[in-house]
Amino acid sequence: MAYLYSDERNVQIVLSLLKEHHIKKVIASPGATNITIVASMQQDSYFEMYSCVDERSAAYMACGLAAESGEPVVLSCTGATSSRNYMPALTEAYYRKLPVIAITSSQINENIGNLSAQCTDRRYLPKDVAKLSVQLPPIKDDSDAKNCELKVNQALLECMRHGGGPVHINLCTTYCPTYRTVKLPKCNLIRRYMVTDDFPSLPSGRIAVFVASHKKWSEGETEVLERFCETNNAVVFCDHTSGYKGKYRVLFALAASQEHKFFNALKPDLLIHIGEISGDYFSLMIHGNQCWRVNPDGEIRDKFGNLTAIFEMEESCFFEKYVGKSKVNTYYDECKSCDKEVRDQLPELPFSNIWVASQLAPKLPSNSVLHLGILNSLRSWNFFEIPSSVQSYSNVGGFGIDGDISSLIGASLAAPDKLFFGVLGDLAFFYDLNVLGNHHIKNNVRLLLINNGRGTEFKNYGHQGAFLGEDVDKYVAAAGHFGNKSKNLIKHFANDLNFEYLTADSKESFCDNMQRFITSKQIGKPIIFEVFTDSNNESEALKMIRNIVKDPVKNAKRVAKYFLKHLKAD
Predict the structure, then answer these.
(1) Cα–Cα distance for residue pair 14/5, rounded to 1 Å
(2) Which of 410, 446, 451 lies closest to 427, judged by CA?
(3) Phi-psi region of 308 (alpha: psi -120 to 50; beta: other; left: phi over 0)
(4) What is the tens place of the pLDDT at every residue in 109-163?
């Protein structure tokens, strides 16, 4: 009987990526749960297959075959207790670093613990039987398929990483009885490169380096990235957690945030991703045609959904590999021109965190340090550049509102000769209030409290909480706590703890106190500057700054759709 590949999409993806990674040796044990993958393999002459009834023996056979051939070997077993018999040999493979890929087919995980026959729990493994274990549930949509591709790439790469070792893929089946798939899907192949490997060629065209939150840069690291940009028509997209201050830095959040004009011409052909988590949600939307990630941890982090390579090495080693002859950098000029187009049309904003950021950001004292709270403060300040000598941070690792002040205080103790500025909203401020009573606090601390009496994020236009209207204040935005914008609470608290207290509730009163807050001189006390804003103004400021420029083509289409809709209605 003629048959083709199984119609189960997770099976198809496993087979496609096994072939893309040049893995062909397979030892299969009999069973019904793994029939879809085994039957698909045995009709494809690419796979070099062997049979073994006893899974314990099959796994040890895989150890011997992998050790002798130097190639990864795939195991396939059915449900029930079959996979338990892999454990002795997988332990052997773990300690000998043998690349064995155990694909255990199983029922869907929802059946675990519900008295389904032949359904054992394969979600948790002893530490020393596999370097990595992934679960591949049945695929229901394209998002599931993409996640499946990522997990299979992770497992297949891990079996050869750092000397090799066993990995586990739990392949859930629906016992699909049809085999009508003629051709395996083209899957996204991810490769890992080490310093000693031959590097792939850079694609022609535009190259962007996206820097998320990052450790402090050395002069050498900055210099080699500058040379990389000079010779490869590259730019560096940054936010205030990136720490990068080099020549080709582009703070692009303002341009990227525009709702009615996306700068398609600036889409890079290759995006190189470095650093960790970013809070610059707008610039994260600038996906390249493909993404390479560079990090010493070598882990696969597919933030942009199109990762094709991971370089396990220091960033300076990577960039040095691609430094060539200098050329005209047109991409940087284009990016700066687009940013200038938006920045030159900045409207007069209402009194808000964004307006405060526009006033303070360029005026921060040289060599000071800035800590930004999650999320409104970080977003607001990412729209505006700060002096190149100012270092800036935010707690984007855990990305919670707690600990902002404490982090700033800890940092301020390490450099008492520097001024440390913190900007945060009222919920974050009160969440971390206790640290202000710490007797180690010095006079180099300056805190800017934006007090709008709630989690104003949930009141912003376009936010999913906004549909609740005023009801969002009850529990979601947590309005009315901590004195409900009391004019005296923080004032008395600050005075009793020997802080200098400043306050403002309008542009005029803010400007009256701003110079005192940012004076480069270390005065006798730390400062708390409490600024009272309104949530409606906060939302309006965000809306205005995201709608500075329009795309004439998009606007024309929008108008045409509007008239067509109403003509039909008439």
Answers:
(1) 12
(2) 451
(3) alpha
(4) 888 888 788 888 888 889 999 999 999 999 999 999 999 999 999 999 999 999 9
pLDDT at position 568? 43
Cβ atoms within 10 Å, residue 473:
19
Q: What is the mean pLDDT of residues 414-441?
A: 97
Supply the DSSP string of 473-491, one letter for each residue.
GTTTS-TT-TTSS-SSHHH
- pLDDT value of position 2: 65
**Tokens 């850079």 belong to residue:** 202
User: Which long-range contacts does 316-321 make (Cβ < 8 Å, 24+ apart)?
Assistant: 316/220, 316/221, 316/224, 316/225, 317/195, 318/294, 319/224, 319/225, 319/227, 319/228, 320/224, 320/228, 321/199
Measured distance CA(167)–CA(264) in Å, rounded: 41
Strands 73-77 and 100-106, sheet pairing: parallel
CB 519, CB 419: distance < 8 Å? no
Angle, CA of 70, 57 and 87, to the nearest 5°? 85
Residues near 467 by beta carbon (within 8 Å), at least 6 away in sequence: none
Residue 95: name the closest of 40, 30, 165, 151 by CA: 165
Residue carrying structure tokens 């403060």 = 377
> What is the arithmetic mean of pLDDT over 367-383?
96
Tens of pLDDT along 273-287?
999 999 999 998 888
What gap in Å lies between CA 157 and CA 5, rounded to an integer?
24
The whole-angstrom separation of Cα 396 and Cα 385 is 19
Cα Dmax for the chain: 89
